[in-house]
Structure formats: structure tokens, C-alpha cells
From TrEMBL:
Residues 20-254 form the AB hydrolase-1 domain. Gene3D superfamilies: alpha/beta hydrolase. Coiled coil: none annotated. This is 2-hydroxy-6-oxo-6-phenylhexa-2,4-dienoate hydrolase. Keywords: Hydrolase. The lineage of its organism: Bacteria, Bacillati, Actinomycetota, Actinomycetes, Streptosporangiales. The keyword Hydrolase applies. It comes from Planomonospora sphaerica. GO terms for molecular function: serine-type carboxypeptidase activity. PANTHER family: HYDROLASE, PUTATIVE (AFU_ORTHOLOGUE AFUA_4G13070)-RELATED, MONOACYLGLYCEROL LIPASE. Transmembrane segments: none annotated.
């Protein structure tokens, strides 16, 4: 585990050697969300150096008072890239709000990014009232599971889970809840009103390298329709919307998720 010396230093975890992969988690959780997403995938592919930072105010990364907006978060990510990777090309993956920042990073460093993976990404219209959202549905309920879980965990899980099984509960606890519990609430409340970038990421030029966009059909947090609307900006993108999957599609449909990510890695590798 390391820290990068920047105005807003980012704590990060690193695994493996080879071509770098930068993974950006969503709003409030920490790096363990992306580590849980991607390590099962990279267990089947050698030759990648996976970098999992905590965004400012999340996990173990501080958010100085100077960080008041999305621009400050993006500046910290840019500094991380420059400090840790230098001029080395890398793959980029982002989940939810991390996908929003990843798209902005591509616009600023397009020559450096070998391929882009967007996992249940937040599109430009971040306000909940502006998104095209499906109604929340629980398609695989397990009331007994919720009754047996610690009350706060059960409450947080029940608000998100389309699939309620012991395995999805375990992954929610170990990959998401742990980040929620250690977030800097005061810092996030300071930044939250200014979470939009100006200009929006979609105003950047098109990105013409291998891309995958994975959405959950029952994702009531960011939806799937707004992610589909991103396709004109990514002419090399595969788009998949997974049924029986919400905002945590990576572990509600893990076999489909892993297959899509592995195919994306193969497309990137073929052009390196």
C-alpha cells in the first residue's frame, strides 16, 4: 500500500506487474469496490499491474479543504496518473461516479488510455430527477437472509440489492459497506453540491479505442438508458445491459460481467 505526494494524495493498493490498469471506484465507497470487481477477472489474465486508488474523502485518501468540487477530484486523479505512471500507457476502468471521472480523464489524456471500461457509469445528468431510471425491483428476494444480517448492513443492502443471496450480501459487506463506513462524511457533503464537471465529459472528442459499457437493467441509481446514450462518443464500444442486475451488476451477474471484461481485455491486447 502506498500514497502519492500531491495536493490531495491518494492512498492506493497495487497488485500484479505488467501493463497498468487504473480502476476508479464510485461515490462514497473505496478501492475495495473495484478490487472486488476486477481481481476475479485478472485471476484469469496475467501481465497486468492493477492500481486501485481511494478517491479524495473516501477510504484512506484525505480531502483537503481545497477540494470542493469534481474538478478537485479529477485533479487528484490526474496527479496520481502523472506521479505513478508517468508517460506509460494504461487501461482505465471506472464504476458509477468513477466512470464519470474516467470519461473526463480519457478526454484529457486520450493518447495514454489503451482501453476504457465503464461499469454502471453515471452519465452526464447526475441529478437523480434528471436521470432515466427504472423502478427499484427485488427479483431474487430472501427475507430470511435480511433478518439474519446485522441491522444496518441489512438496511443498506436491501436498498440496493436486486439479488439477495448470501454471496451478494457477503460481497456488499466486504466490497462496499467497508468503504461506506470509513468515508469522510463532512468532506463529501462539501463536495457533493459540485459533483458536475464543466464542461461535461461527453463534450470531449470521441475515444476510438476498445471500450465496454456494462449496465444493470434494474439499476435504479444511474439507470441504463443514459449509458446507452454515451455510445456516439465511443465508436469502439460494446454495450451490454444485464437483466437481474442493479447498480452492483458486477456481483449480481458475475459470470456475465467477467466474460464481458475478459473480452474487452482481449480486444485491447490485440491492438497493443
Amino acid at each position: 500500500m502506498s500514497s502519492v505526494r500531491t495536493a490531495a494524495p491518494l492512498h492506493f493498493v497495487e497488485h500484479g506487474t505488467g501493463t497498468p490498469v487504473l480502476a476508479l471506484h464510485g461515490w462514497t465507497p473505496d478501492h475495495r469496490l473495484m478490487l472486488g470487481c476486477l481481481e476475479p477477472v485478472f485471476a484469469r489474465r496475467d501481465g497486468y499491474r492493477r492500481l486501485y486508488p481511494d478517491l479524495p474523502g473516501m477510504g484512506k485518501s484525505p480531502a483537503p479543504l481545497s477540494v470542493t468540487s469534481a474538478a478537485g477530484l479529477l485533479d487528484a486523479v490526474l496527479a496520481f496518473v502523472d506521479d505513478v505512471l508517468g508517460d506509460e500507457p494504461f487501461l482505465l476502468a471506472g464504476e458509477s461516479y468513477g466512470g464519470y471521472l474516467a470519461r473526463a480523464l480519457v478526454g484529457l489524456r486520450p493518447e495514454r488510455v489503451l482501453g476504457l471500461a465503464l461499469i454502471c457509469p453515471a452519465a452526464d445528468r447526475l441529478g437523480a430527477t434528471e436521470r432515466a431510471l427504472p423502478d427499484f425491483q427485488v427479483l431474487r428476494p430472501d427475507p430470511g437472509l435480511l433478518a439474519s444480517a446485522e441491522p444496518r448492513l441489512a438496511e443498506e443492502f436491501a436498498e440496493m440489492a436486486v439479488v439477495q443471496t448470501p454471496e451478494t450480501l457477503r460481497r456488499f459487506r466486504d466490497e462496499i459497506m467497508v468503504g461506506l463506513d470509513c468515508a469522510d462524511t463532512a468532506a463529501l457533503e462539501r463536495i457533493a453540491p459540485n459533483r458536475l464537471l464543466d464542461p461535461e465529459p461527453s463534450e470531449s472528442r470521441s475515444f476510438d479505442r476498445p471500450t465496454v459499457i456494462i449496465a444493470g437493467r434494474q439499476d435504479h441509481v444511474v439507470g441504463y438508458a443514459d449509458a446507452f446514450a454515451l455510445l456516439p462518443h465511443y465508436p469502439r464500444a460494446s454495450y451490454a445491459v444485464l437483466d437481474v442486475a442493479g447498480h452492483n451488476a458486477q456481483f449480481e451477474q458475475p459470470e456475465l460481467f467477467d466474460a464481458l471484461m475478459l473480452e474487452w481485455l482481449d480486444r485491447v491486447a490485440a491492438e497493443m
